Amino acid sequence: MSCMANRVLIIGLGLIGGSLAKALKKKHFVNVVVGYDRNLDELQQGIDLGIIDEGCSDFSSAVKTADIIVLAVPVKATEAVLFDIKPYLQPHTVITDVGSTKGNVIVAAQNVFGSVPRNFIPGHPIAGSEKSGVAAADDTLFVKHKVILTPLPDSDKSATRLIARMWQSTGAEVLQMAIERHDEVLAATSHLPHLLAFSLVDTLAKEQDSTEIFRYAAGGFRDFTRIAASDPTMWHDVCLANKKQILDQIDNFTAGLASLRRAIVDGDSQSMLGVFTRAKSAREHFNKMLSGTAYSQTHHNLQVTFHIRSAGPLQGRISVSGDKSMSHRAIVLGALAEGVTNINGFLESEDSLATVQAFRDMGVVIEGPHQGAVKIYGVGLHGLYPPPGPLYLGNSGTSMRLLSGLLAAQKFDTELLGDRSLSKRPMERVAEPLREMGASINTSENGSAPVYISGGQQLSAINYQMPVASAQVKSALLLAGLYAQGVTQIKQSAITRDHTERMLKNFGVELTTQNSVVSIASGQILRATNLDIPADISSAAFFIVAAAINPGSDLVIEQVGVNPSRSGILDIMKMMGADLTLENPMTLNGEPVADVHVRYTPLKAITIPEELVSVAIDEFPVIFVAAAAATGVTCLTGVGELRYKESDRIEAMQQGLLRMGINVVVEGDNILITGGELQGANISSYDDHRVTMAFAVAGTIAKDEVRIEACSHVATSFPEFIEVAQKAGIRIHKEETNVSS
Ligand SMILES: O=C(O)C1=C[C@@H](OP(=O)(O)O)[C@@H](O)[C@H](O)C1
Ligand SMILES: C=C(OP(=O)(O)O)C(=O)O
Fold this sequence. Notes:
The protein is an alpha/beta fold. 3-phosphoshikimate binds at residues 324-325, 329, 470, 472, 618, 645.
């Protein structure tokens, strides 16, 4: 089989055949594009418009000389066309088709040839338009569209490659699928929506006052029914060709609609909201999951670059968004509670939204977030439903680890997936103690995601000495402990954030912490509550450092959570000489909160005490920047955990600071940073939100512009970073480049 093609014969010059002809000619994929159409006017138009090189009105010579034959005819006509071309087919000729159902095309080939020829490679371009005819041919129709090839197990491999290359030359992305799967998937994603559009328009058109209805039909109706203008004959054929799969999908949809109808009849708000809130986020979610990118960014083709110039003083009062750790926990505990939990101050970031989506996938109705307000209809400890597929947790380590603990105790199986960064992070640190409790949980070969959890295991309490200082591990075990027989005890080697413990108490759960051992007994019920989430100290940290290093600054960051298990940044900055005061202290749902007031004073280098590492763990990227701005050599030890975050944060900070002219020496986990004058530079974000924001702060005191590449990840924890930074007086702007064009 030759892998080159000289002549392509396209049988059927409709929209698809015509567009393919035009694209192949434009890309010079072959020397000659020959067209055939029963309708001689169409054929003549194809020649006149320059869409084909040659037209033929009888098959014999065109088929004999073709290297590739594309059947671009209605699926129902496939058998007749194959029969007609059979006498002239040459052994080397590769045949393909463009039909939107594949099972029947295979049957047609069997009927004509006895068995499917090895060089017949069925295909289906997922592209189209409600327009038809060769005049509508568009050579860009397939660009960035998918084409599914469904070769049989014994199909010729080089023939498959040739057809794949043909489609790729038109700009399409080529995939392969088994025939049955193709027909099932298409029934759900293409055939059902078309039938719904036809049926809706037909039903409304039959109403007596249909003219009125259509006159006032708004955009929603038009969007939904656009495809009802598609070719009726083609859709008639599709329905017959893919009957079983289409009927299954209609039944599935009818059942869904019937249950929505029931909810409306019963005035069952929770069920109605369940359908609407899940559907609202589902499209976005699946796009993210398929592209392996972050969760809620709508413009994932945009490359975001930050530009920062040295600022004047930072002044005034700012507020930063809600605490990420508490936002995750509020969703988890609200979902497990009995009753309705209202949250205010919820962080609407990629990570916390990943947790929201996971619980929606497990049947929990969650309204919002809307301007920080979220309402969760708790389902109780045993009310979660099996999710319809893997739970996709984007970039969020907290979601994956906390959920591992919770899901290990459920009756159903789950699979947890993450993006590229999360898929590299260690998950055995939660899997291993959960196994000790009796969980059935597997991680990948290198101990990371995907995490597979088999449900239906009765867990037993353990006494666990944590080898790493990790609030995520502790929290996972506390959640599992809610279900495990006995009293689960977790001993910490260092202080880690205790938001889970504090928040569980808000939900009425009793637990104790004594001599760094946290104990929780199972059999307790969580009762819904209302929660106010304070501003995130980890986000405030960027402005604390920025104000501390920019002469003349006087900045207040309002209502920041200053829980001592999180406030290491304040201690470290004070030790370095920063002028920092806490004002208006208060308590919100058991969490200490205060306004943080920072005024500029020169910083001096220190040796950071190791016991402050775990209580400032996420702030180290920006602490590196404070050290770069301080006089002298700052020493850090025991920060190895930084290597297991969204990036290797030691490496990321060292490389970036070196580019800015700062001497950073790393020996194992010991780091020496010599303060100095920072230069402008191009910096890589390492796709890490905290690294990005830390270098934005470094840019405020650099001599020349700092440019940070790939910054969209700030949405992981702080989507409004740019706006807040500008408000504080930082000269930062973002440049967006469309990488798809
Ligand atoms: O429990 C939490 O919410 C978090 C704990 C920390 O991780 P480790 O538990 O891995 O230290 C921290 O780095 C992360 O940003 C949030
Ligand atoms: C490490 C972080 O988060 P997570 O572990 O949830 O991904 C972080 O926000 O810095």
